[in-house]
Amino acid sequence: MSSSAEQGTKSLLDRIGTKRMLHAYVVGVAFLEGGVLAAALGDGRVAFIGSENANAPRFVSVHDGVCLSLAVDLGGERVLTGGDDGRLVSTDTAGETTAISAIDGRWVEPIAVSMASGLRAAGFGKTVCLFARDGSAVGTFVHPNTVGGLAFDPKGRRLATAHYGGASLWWAKAGGQQPKRLAWSGSHLSLTLSPDGKDIVTAMQENELHGWRVSDGADMRMSGYPAKVRSMSWLPKGRFLATSGAEPVVCWPFHGKGGPMGKAPLDLGWGVDGVVTVVAAHPRHDVVAAGYEDGATILVQIDRPHPVLVKQPGEGAVTALAWSADGQHLALGTESGFIGRVRLSDWRAPT
Amino acid sequence: MNQIPVTVLTGYLGAGKTTLLNRILTEQHGKKYAVVVNEFGEIGIDNDLVVNADEEVFEMNNGCICCTVRGDLIRILGGLMKRQGSFDGILIETTGLADPAPVAQTFFVDEDVRRRTWLDSIVTVVDARHVVQRLEDSHEALEQIAFADVILLNKTDLVSADELAQVERRIRSINATAIIHRTQRCEVDLAAVLGRRAFDLDRILAIEPNFLSEDDHEHDDAVKSVCLRTDRPLDGARLTGWLQRMLAERGQDLLRTKGILSIAGQDKQFVVQAVHMLMEGNFTKPWDPNENRESRLVFIGRNIDGTELRQQFDACIA
Predicted confidence band at B200 (pLDDT cuts at 50, 70, 90)? Predict the structure, then answer.
């Protein structure tokens, strides 16, 4: 047995990581400026976990119910969360909360923040509202159905939304407009825009992806998943789109002419059992972190077949994964409330 | 992860659905429910969680022509599952004019919903006084009765004993397998309504034999029940082939199909249930060696011919 195989039996988390049990469904994790890890929880709290393991996390009760979504807020030092209490809230690491909006009886699920344009977007059912840095509402976009996913383009000038029957593309700062409608029958649950803003991809109720080229609305179908695709993440420069929903980590090629059409996706992470529930691509390298329904988590490189084990199975399905902006830290969360964190600058890939 | 039981509450406008909902929300039953309602109305909120639904009915592109689901429910149930261990059951209220099929089909179609919840029962509140008229002028009222596992025949104080018996016969001819409770102001032991595991079908066994013969009913409702039974074991391959063909060809007309079947060479009961063309069949518990292995199959639907179905069923006998 080679040394890499021996390393494979012990996870990175066991060797060089830190672990915590927060006892509530981890809805999302994100790294803030200064290395603080934020986790949004199913009991309505946000946990801030410092880089020093000795310090206890700071818990902030943010939502009266469930946190449904988490994003790094403008400035990079706060988190933005949506909840089933109808509130969109910005919270800092000291525990101070600022309610940006509240609509009674609505769930705030899809949210997005554009650092480039200084805008935040949040879906309140069929209505998507845009908020400026000072919290003022600067746009309202009404859809025929509930908006499941939304994303800004790279400059934060356009906003794409996913809903039943397709996607819509809005100008972020224009009133009284009709959106560009990208139609495809079925229910579109979440959405991502390629880093160059040229492609929109939605995950559908029917266990498949649908894509549109923004320039001409050309359709792309990406199917064959055994489960719903809950998570999509672009590799650096948008060369591949990594996705959950299958046993391998399915990565669709978007570089080259015609994008993924007529091409087979890369299947990464063979040898790991179970369905991938979350993916997060490294911000700089062709590396994908993938979490599984049994709680296992791996790192896999595009051009290497063998994954590196980050976390052993257990603690319920992985529900959240995030890299720090510099790609040196990886965090994960599970449905039972486990939080793991690995500093990868402490780790050398087996050669 | 524990699966959470879901009760779907239907009933035509004015039947008393809100009264029942209020009782469930305010009575001390020691249980905590998440309640999905259509709009925040005059309902008391005590210990329970109330969620607003949008009734977004979506068509699925799975090649199943009549397959619609409630997209909002999939989303809501997904959100509720993030609150672990904080309630004992989920109650879904549908609007008075709703077709129950998309709600029921949601529990067959969506994998995440199936993994986390089970459809415990469909409870329909029926206004004893007005239901006869409703059955004449509204197909929704008919479908709500056809889909029910439990029926609260409510407002019984507003009709005579004769009228009540007549109404009950009429309901029976549409839905032969539902459990009927006669109520006033929805006063019924909540244990009779919630946590029934009615979709488990065990209770079909409890329904008395020979409850209805083909020509027992004087009204010709568009929806009726056909009940088939046999003491002889069935051929598994022939039976599932027939059921699949039936549901594929006639799924639009067949609202509910339920059965507990004895398959030749199998020790376990084969339990099937379907909503329109979505079918689930599983071998469940073993037959009791002391019990008569009687197969029972019920179709509730439109344009169904009992004689034809019986012939086809008999052809499946091993």
Answer: low
Q: Is A148 on the interface with B (CB under 8 A)?
A: yes
Only one residue has tokens 């529990």, namely B107
Instruction: Evaluate if residue B69 carries a pLDDT over 80.
Output: yes
Q: Residue A110's closest chain B neighbor by CA?
A: B75
* Contact state of A109 with B79 under an 8 Å Cβ cutoff: yes
- Give A67's strand partners: A83
User: Do the Cβ atoms of B52 and A106 come within 8 Å?
Assistant: yes
Given the candidates 3.40.630.30, 3.30.1220.10, 3.30.450.40, 3.40.50.720, the CATH classification of the domain at B212-314 is: 3.30.1220.10
Fold of B4-200: Rossmann fold (3.40.50)
Q: Which residues of A touch B54 (CB under 8 A)?
A: 125-126, 146
pLDDT at residue B61 tops 80:
no
- Tell me if B69 and A205 make a contact (CB, 8 A cut-off): yes
Q: pLDDT grade, residue A4 (50/70/90)?
A: very low
DSSP B209-247: TT---TT--SS--SEEEEEEEESSPBPHHHHHHHHHHHH
The neighbouring-strand residues paired with B90 are B6, B34
Q: By mean pLDDT, which of A283-287, B22-26, B39-43 is the weakest?
A: B39-43
For the complex shown, is ipTM > 0.95? no
- Per cent of chain A over pLDDT 70 is 95
In contact, A275 and A245? CB cutoff 8 Å: yes
Kindly state whether residue A94 falls inside one of the protein's structural domains.
no
Q: Judge: B82–A186 Cβ closer than 8 Å, yes or no.
A: no
Residue of A205, A207, A209, A338 best to disrupt the B interface, most CBs of B under 10 A: A205
Q: Do B82 and A68 touch (CB under 8 A)?
A: yes
Structural domain includes residue A58: no
Residue bearing the bigger pLDDT, B80 or B210: B80
